[in-house]
Structure prediction request, 99 residues.
Amino acid sequence: MGAQIAAHLANGGLTVHLLDLAAKEGNKNAIVETALDIYRSEQLIRQFPYADWQNWRIFWHRVPILFYFKEVKSIHFLPILFDPKMLETCLERHCPLKS
Prediction:
């Protein structure tokens, strides 16, 4: 559903940034194991390696969700189009929350 909403926004002339958790090679249904990748259309514009993350939270569980994560060198607060349960499940596996 998020990809469809993003497509409509892009068709309306808005800039859309998609977060990609799917593997680009091998099993396309697999999750990227090492980083959160951000794409604009088909172009990778930024990678956030999980190894640099200190913490993360999902603040708003509706679409678009509000997603916060802190790396060693910076803090990010992003509104994104993504299923919050799926994002939370994936991130718990790759970057467990710190108490």
